[in-house]
Amino acid sequence: MVLHQALPTPSPAALPKYPIQKVQIGHEEFSLLVTRTQKERELGLGAVRVLPEHQGMLFEFSEGGQVGIWMKGMKYPIDIIWLDPKKQVIHIERNAQPSSYPKNIFTNPAGTSAYYVIEVHAGETTRLGLQKGQSVDFIQNDQ
């Protein structure tokens, strides 16, 4: 069974139905919307008016590299987590503000390769004590 979910938006038909990936960050479980296409990556959480607690978005990249994240269309601040292929934290941008767009694009440091990027509510990474080098566990979805 593949889980799908759409979050509330001003025009619900405009937001695709995303598969869900459950992850454990620290000792807490989060349900992440998984982007599959370039269009979904560009849209990101910008179309999501309200992000429920313990939810977020996951971006997966088959080839690692320096991954830029913008705040276009965002209505609330977020924490951004970059992971290596072993799903270990290589960088965290805490409290990325909607007003940073278009001036700032947030990226993982040069010389690191991100294969996954997770976006959650601002303050979650601090509250959970998440640090560089820690792992994020991807939970097997029920099949």
CATH topology: Jelly Rolls
In CATH terms, the superfamily is Protein of unknown function DUF192
* % residues in beta strands: 35-45%
> How helix-rich are the residues, as a percent range?
under 10%
**Cα distance, first to last residue?**
5 Å
State the total count of DSSP E strands.
Answer: 10
Instruction: Return the CATH class.
Output: Mainly Beta
Overall pLDDT, averaged?
88
CATH architecture: Sandwich
Short description:
This protein is mainly beta and 143 residues long.
If you had to describe this structure to a student in words, what would you say it looks like?
- Helices cover 7% and strands 40% of the residues.
- With 143 residues, it is mainly β.
- The strands form 2 sheets. Strands 1, 2, 3, 4, 6, 7, 9 and 10 form an 8-stranded mixed β-sheet that branches. Strands 5-8 form a two-stranded antiparallel ribbon.
- The longest helix has 6 residues, at 38-43.
- Mean pLDDT is 88; it is low at 1-14.
What distinguishing features does this structure have?
single chain; 143 residues; 40% strand; mainly beta; 8-stranded mixed β-sheet; Jelly Rolls
What secondary-structure arrangement, pairings included, does this model have?
Blueprint: E1 4-5, E2 18-25, E3 28-34, H1 38-43, E4 55-65, E5 68-69, E6 78-83, E7 89-96, E8 106-107, E9 114-121, H2 124-127, E10 137-139
Parallel strand pairs: 3-4
Antiparallel strand pairs: 1-2, 2-3, 2-10, 4-9, 5-8, 6-7, 6-9
